[in-house]
Amino acid sequence: MEFALSEDQRLLADSIKSFLDETVPLDETRKVATENDTAVKQRMTEGLGALGVNQILVPEAHGGLGLAALDAALVHEALGFAAAPISFTGTMMASRAIAEAGTEDQKADWFGKLVNGEVRFGIAMTERVNVREGAGLSEEDGKLSGKALFAFDCDDATHIITADQSGALYIVAADAAGLTRNDMPNIDRTRMMSELLLDGVDAVRLDGENEPGNAAARVIELGRVLLAADTLGAMQNMLDQAVEYAGGREQFGRVIGSFQAVKHMCAEMVAEVEPLRALVWHAAHAIDTDPDEGPVLACLAKALAADSGQFVARTSTEVHGGMGFTDLVGLHYWFKRIGLNRQLLGGPERVREDAAKLQGWAA
């Protein structure tokens, strides 16, 4: 049996890539990274919103597109290819959180606001993966207190999805009294991580979940696949740039792409990219079709993306020689994107451990 994209999925991926090619050339990404130019991000947010990407995981019954995790992964792959400085992961994970843990009334309310563009979501769920000393949230009388680290997509969010220590999911207004957001600088300057400090903050609990923690696990599962897809897109771009450079750069009267060592480097990058593409697409498909296999494949896709991404980022830079380290070429934007994706929602060691536990190979 052949596993391939449908015609609609190919059209979706092509349309998003064409939009990003026109809207976010490298100079625009550089403005965000070096000047914190919010106008670039605003144009992207409005353009992608017009294309309906924020509604991908919203059920048709609530006015959304009712598409699958694989469709969201294809969009993320295009975003990674462009090193696009935009909040998208948070909205997709929030859609999954509302679908998994919301009551019918909550779904109608929040999905309606999402479709109408009234809300933008950030995610603060790192503590469901790794808890650092002093971090974690607790709930008392409908109010949340504590600290959430490495929250993402919160810098321009109107609301934030988070979880307490039991795994119950909550929606918090980004401007709620008692909530303080501090920037956490990281290597990827196109995306901002945040530290959230909550002191008796009013929160809406998603009450449709029977057993707290299950929905949170499903949200993280989706997030891991999307980050793996983002890394896949970044890897493809770095590979393409390396091949183009090797075909034009001359040394000793020959293009360097004619040297066997450089050919091998490019071939090795292809050998990392293609298996990852198959695994990411399969994992995204399994999230919606196989509840037993989906969580395991999400972990494996995230782990492989971390290691393969690191290899391609390093090798592409080496193919470029000294030029690979310059801002003129700009490889470092994809290099750093891959580096941040590697750690978000669990590094390769952690997600492999999670995969082993899911399969009963570890306690």
Largest sheet: 4 strands, mixed
Percentage of residues in DSSP E strands: 5-15%
- Rg calculated over all Cα atoms: 20 Å
Coarse shape: globular
Order of helices and strands: HHHHHHEEEEEEEEHEEHHHH
| CATH superfamily label of the largest domain | Butyryl-CoA Dehydrogenase, subunit A, domain 3
Structure commentary:
The protein is α+β, with helices and mostly antiparallel strands and 363 residues long. It folds into 3 domains: 7-115, Acyl-CoA dehydrogenase/oxidase, N-terminal domain (Butyryl-Coa Dehydrogenase, subunit A, domain 1, Orthogonal Bundle), CATH 1.10.540; 121-205, Butyryl-CoA Dehydrogenase, subunit A, domain 2 (Beta Barrel); 214-358, Butyryl-CoA Dehydrogenase, subunit A, domain 3 (Up-down Bundle), CATH 1.20.140. Helix content is 54%, strand content 14%. It contains 11 helices and 10 strands. The protein has helices spanning 7-23, 26-35, 38-50, 69-82, 89-101, 104-115, 214-248, 260-289, 293-319, 331-343, 348-358; strands at 121-124, 136-140, 143-152, 159-163, 169-173, 179-184, 193-202, 204-205, 250-251, 254-255. It has a 4-stranded mixed β-sheet with strand order 1-4-5-8, with helices on one face. Helix 7 (214-248) runs antiparallel to helix 10 and helix 8 (260-289) runs antiparallel to helix 9 (293-319). It is globular, with a radius of gyration of 20 Å. 48% of the residues are buried.
